[in-house]
């Protein structure tokens, strides 16, 4: 009998790979894989700790590999969006949530949610500045990106759509 794909097998596979590739430290982050309308998507809740951005890239690599997608652009875009959210939020603002999904045309949908209401914008960076290039990178590697403010000043979602190629 051949291999048969199922959402529960996929879920088990992603969790096993994530655990096998490094220590799981629930006090720093937690990972939840969610099922979305016959497609498997991922969600990662990130605590206020810049060291976790490496774990964000690992998570994006795992999901991208399961979808047969190159991980370079998704990892870089996720790193930039999560780092921006962590940089502009304070400890009392709470966690940052990264969600991955697929669009109808099989591109990667990525969104990062935080509770700050300050909307990001592309900045002019000078040659020596260490900040100010993140959204320029997101803009160059994404088909499109944008911001959706949440109702009742509950924060915002910054999203990007990344083509498979």
From TrEMBL:
Residue ranges of every copy of the Histidine kinase/HSP90-like ATPase domain listed in the record: 76-146
Superkingdom of origin organism: Bacteria
Pfam families associated with the record: HATPase_c
Lineage, uppermost ranks: Bacteria, Bacillati, Actinomycetota, Actinomycetes, Streptosporangiales
InterPro entries the record matches: Anti-sigma-factor_SerPK, HATPase_C_sf, HATPase_dom
Protein name in UniProt: Histidine kinase/HSP90-like ATPase domain-containing protein
Keywords carried by this UniProt record: Kinase, Serine/threonine-protein kinase, Transferase
Record's keyword annotation contains Kinase: yes
Xref: CDD domains: HATPase_RsbW-like
